[in-house]
Specification:
This protein is mainly β. The chain is 8% helix and 41% strand. The protein has helices at residues 36-41, 120-123, and strands at residues 7-12, 19-24, 27-33, 44-49, 53-57, 62-65, 73-77, 85-87, 94-98, 109-115. It has a seven-stranded mixed beta sheet, with no helix packed on it. Strands 1-2-5 form a three-stranded antiparallel beta sheet, with no helix packed on it. A hairpin with a 6-residue loop joins β1 and β2.
Amino acid sequence: MTAPSLVTHRGGCHCGAVAFEVDAPARLLVQDCNCSICSMTGFQHLIVPASRFRLLRGADALVEYRFNTGTARHLFCRHCGIKSFYVPRSNPDGYSVNARCLDPATIEGIDVEAFDGRNWESSGAALAHLSRD
């Protein structure tokens, strides 16, 4: 079985101050996490290796929030408040892009799988492979 070919998806925040590209399949597999922050914001995780993510603009517009262990780097646009991507605790060597912040023109479909972030200690390792090249 071969890996699906990758396309370049563009995304960003609501006001346009932050823009990025991510290389991922046209049909996305995302995780729907039930942890406290993800369930409140509706974040749909597309986790990729750092090599497949490019920040195009807005580094100066990003503000950071850390909680609990302080490992995850939650990055928000300081203008509109949108977290379009961040560095997750489960994959500190990659990025988690919010699929809802991607331009739909390059997305053929989205498959959603549940992830038990409320029980992170027993579930987190299941995501580690997603940020490997």
